[in-house]
Amino acid sequence: MSALFRAELFKLVRQPSLLFWGFLSVPVFAMIFKILLDGMVFVRMRQVSPDNVDILMSAAKSLGISGNSLAHLLYAIGIASIFFAEYRFSTWRILVPRASRFQLWAAKYLACLAFLCLSLVLVMISNALLHIVTTLLFEQRLPNMAIRPDSFLTLLLAFMASLLELSVLTAIVAAITTLTRSMIAAVIPAFMLTLGASLVALYVGPTRNVIPLPSPASEALRDWILSGGPAFLGWSGLAILSAWLVVAAAIGGVAFWRQQLSSE
Amino acid sequence: MNVAARAANNAIAVNGIRKSYGFGARAVLALDDLTLHIPRGQVYGLLGPNGAGKSTLLRIIAGLVRPDRGHIEILGEPAAPASRRRLGMLIEAPGFYPFLTAREHLEMLARMADTPLPVDAVLKRTGILHAADKKVSGFSLGMKQRLGIGCALVGQPEAIVLDEPTNGLDPDGILEMRALIRELAERDGITVLLSSHLLDEVERVCRRIAILRRGALAAEGDVAELLGRNGRFWLNVDGAEAVSKKLGARAEPANGGLYIAVKQADVPELIASLVAAGIRIHEAKWVKPDLETVFLSETRENRS
Question: Is domain B3-227 in CATH 3.40.50.300, yes or no?
Answer without folding.
Answer: yes
